[in-house]
Amino acid sequence: xxxxxxxxxxxxxxVGGQTCRLPFANNQIPLSTVAQTVQGFLPPTNLxxxxxxxxxxxxxxxxxxxAVLDHVITTQTSFRIDENLTQKNKLFFSYHxxxxxxxxxxxxxxxxxxxxxxxxxxxxxxxxxxxxxFLATPSILNHMTVGFNRVYTASKSPxxxxxxxxxxxxxSGASGQTFPIFEFNGGQYTIGYSKFxxxxxxxxxxxxxxxxxxxxxxxxxxALQFGFDWRSYxxxxxxxxxxxxxxxxxxxxxxxxxxxxxxxxxxxxxPFASFLLGQPDQESLTVSSHYSRWAQNYYxxxxxxxxxxxxxxxxxxxxRWDIETPRHEALGDQSVFSPxxxxxxxxxxxxALVYGSGATGASTYFxxxxxxxxFAYSPDFVHDTVVRGGYSIYYAPLTYSDFGGNxxxxxxxxxxxxxxxxxxxVQSLDAGFPSFALPSDTxxxxxxxxxxxxxxxxxxxxxxxxxxxxxQLEIQHQFAADLIFAIGYVGQHGTRLRSNLAQINTPxxxxxFLGNALGFAVDGTDGNNGPAILSQxxxxxxxxxxxxxxxxxxxxxxxxxxxxLLRPFPQYxxxxxxxxxxxxxxxxxxxxxxSVERRFRNGLNLLASYTYSKTITDADSSFSTLTGxxxxxxxxxxxxxxxxxxxxxxxxxxxxxxxxYLYELPFGxxxxxxxxxxxxxxxxxxxxxxxxxxxxxxxTVINQFVTANPYSGGNYRLSQVPGQAVFLAHPAKWSPAxxxxxxxxxxxxxxxxxxxxxxxxxxxxxxxxVDPSAASLATGGGxxxxxxxxxxxxxxxxxxxxxxxxxxxxxxxxxxxxILFKADIPNAFNxxxxxxxxxxxxxxxxxxPGGSGHGVINGPRQIQLALRYEF
Length: 871
Hints:
- By secondary structure, this protein is mainly beta.
């Protein structure tokens, strides 16, 4: 048996109890008709290439695609028409469109249609506005605006030219507008084969219609305004690209024997040979029966009165009523999990999918009333002083973070064929794609029962949008004609904010003491004492449970375990809520704000402000819609006690000072010095301005990647070891000069952390951290919650400092003609303030601001000079 020798899969036989094959004569194989057709689209090599490890010349890196498109093409069209119909009627219409096409990556590794991975992005936007102003009387004005937005976003493979590629290549049983994917694993002699084709083809089309009208009315001491606002949204999404097959070829299909029988078998066979022979290791595709078109509406009416109650007292009184509908599918093809619906597969245990136009989970909420109350009072007994205050309630929009992918009806078929022995080929290319059951719009309440497929739940109370209450009080005093001092308090309380906290199918943490026993089979067939444990808990195993989930050991590898049974809905795996309206978040913000302003006088304008604040929240769980949700960093450790999830916000900046100024030098015409002659032209017209910002760093997020109950959301946190200080007496500080070989990370043994490299510089004390569940399990205990909050205020990133300057020189040539010179100098001192501290002990750069990417939050100093002639 020689390395790289090819064996005929059609000769597979058992000899002496071992599965084996006969070799191809002279290592020559018959070619698949489909493979030959695909080969016709492959370009010839155009580079000398690199030799393989067996000395074969030019077989690696031997092609460079000369057709590289890395530029962005943008076409914009804008115009506006204004028409005064009469002295009292004015109309305007505007239109703006933008078309932008660009390549998602830098280049095509292979030419179309076999281009792998890369694709084109297409953006088309249309914005239309129509406005009408009607002056009914000198004191009554009606303003109406109608707007329409349409955005067409498409991601398309270069092969997407309108033809049916599987049919064009001779692959029966499949149809699609993208070139099928041919992927290769397991090459010999360090040879890696490029993938062919990609299935990028998706469409997203959001539309929005906005109609708003307001009436402004002045009556004596009252300035009144009334209005309404209607916004209609539509969002369509399609992903038809994956209907073309995805093939994976491996050396195993042309190998001598399975690797499990003989490890040296991996030296035989070749994935490209398997392709040429037309024998895939795996083949799959995705077909959906329905693509959703979502609709949502927003309505609001409001009234506002600015009332001059007295000569030194003005009141602002207003009320807004917001109504927003949860989204619904245009044809009623939608579904949602209902915790009370009957499930025919689980008698006695409610919980199933419901379908139809009413399957939104949440109904429209009609009590979003937002008062606005404010005042400005200048007391007679304290001259040059104004007291301002106010209270208001605002409502956030109902938002979904799933890009239209959840709550849909119908089904998606994802046939995935691969033989479990990882040796026998699946159906050949020439035989076409294997037959499979097409998806349908059958509304099956039991869909996804006894699977780990994600099920989406929208609780009835999720119909209430986020509510933010704001209140403030400010005292402003004018010490001199041009010097004003202000100090005030600002408060904010947010409730029902978007969140990622619910985890409605996580078992009650009272069962955490079971530890690893949560994975025991409920019927004891794995040799453990599962039935005795359930008996002690008083929990009965339903008749459908084991049959539905299967025994939790080979060959079924099912999930009929104690942990699965203890879920609130044991017939399902993960039930998600964070995609769609979950609103369990809260936040509080309190701030002291002070400012001093010197209004423009003697060429100087200056404003200095200082803010001392604190933000506490559990709504960082939704940061951001993509980042936070996907990373689970901000998820709930214990969804049964959300009070324990509140912590300082990762956005909390307790101290911030900002200084801005503009100074005109006292030289030149009309100034105190050098007001005439050549000197006035040279020294006059100079301005210097600046914005300086100095603020405290952000809290450190101690990431949640520790040992957790496998049936929970996995958001358990670290704890601090009693008696161990987090900070060292002489901590190491990372610098670029120390980066080579840097390793301040920690490794846990039975939950207790120690330095990866004991002799390496350490930023913080590894021994202060413990994975409490791992430590408990190591001694036969259960799962334990960590004591650290999500973010800690006592450990912050470096403070932010930045200075921006601008220098302007205006020279007048003659009346109406000037030459303007301007120099912008952002980050003038080229400061490098590193970002958030890496808060995960397992990382190489644990405790280092900016983490492994060494990201900075200052922009680089880039001086920009401009010279302009104005006339």
